[in-house]
Amino acid sequence: MNRICIAALLVLPVPLSAQPYSESMADCASFYQNAAQWVRTDEKAEEIMHAVRAWYEAALDQAQAEGRSISADAMWDKIDARTGDWEAKGVYFSFTEEFRDWASYCRKFARHNGIQLSF
Fold first, then answer.
1. How far is Cα 87 from Cα 34, in angstroms, rounded to an integer?
2. Mean pLDDT for each 10-residue chunk of the chain (119 residues)?
3. DSSP states of 77-107
4. Distance CA 75, CA 104 (A)
5. Is 74 helix (H, G, I), strand (E, B) or coil?
6. Where along the chain do its domains lie?
7. What pLDDT, on a 0 to 100 scale, did the predictor assign at position 110?
8. Cα–Cα distance between 63 and 100 in angstroms, integer?
9. Is residue 61 within a helix (H) or strand (E), and if so which, with residue range?
10. How far apart are CA 47 and CA 33, in angstroms?
């Protein structure tokens, strides 16, 4: 009986750890950075880019709080690379359920972290 229990424990998957908050913050920054290029007015794009900068600052601060050493430039590089992933989904991505899910997630995550969104 003991052997069966030990064997079962060895076969069970090890739970994966969640992505660090700083990574999720960078994801939201890149999501908004991508969205900023598809709006109709410069004023709206600037509102969205204000949120991008807020997410960037929060991600950088959070990474340091997590004990992760990342430079300001490296954080922007990470955000820009992820923005490219969003761009690859195309202009019609904004009409998908995935887009709505991300928008909702980032809005709630912003509220939870005290990041002000003006849109």
1. 6
2. 49 62 97 94 96 97 95 97 95 93 97 92
3. HHHHHHHHHHHTT-GGGGGSHHHHHHHHHHH
4. 23
5. helix
6. 18-112
7. 97
8. 26
9. helix 42-65
10. 11
Predicted local confidence at residue 112, as pLDDT: 96
41: Cβ contacts below 8 Å, ≥ 6 apart = none
Q: What is the DSSP letter of 67?
A: T
Distance CA(113)–CA(119), nearest Å, equals 17
Nearest to 51 by CA among 67, 30, 69, 65: 30
| CA–CA separation, 107 and 73 (whole Å) | 25
CB 88 within 8 Å of CB 34: no
pLDDT on residue 7: 45
Instruction: Indicate the residue type of 69.
Output: S
Residue 77 in tokens? 């590089």
Residues in CB range of 56: below 8 A, 6 or more apart: 26, 29, 75, 76, 79
Q: Tokens 């997590």 correspond to what residue?
A: 66
Under 8 Å CB-to-CB from 77, ≥6 apart: which residues? none
Q: What burial class does residue 39 get, using C-beta atoms within 10 Å of its C-beta: 0-12 exposed, 13-18 middle, 19+ buried? A: middle
What token pair was written down for 70? 């990342």
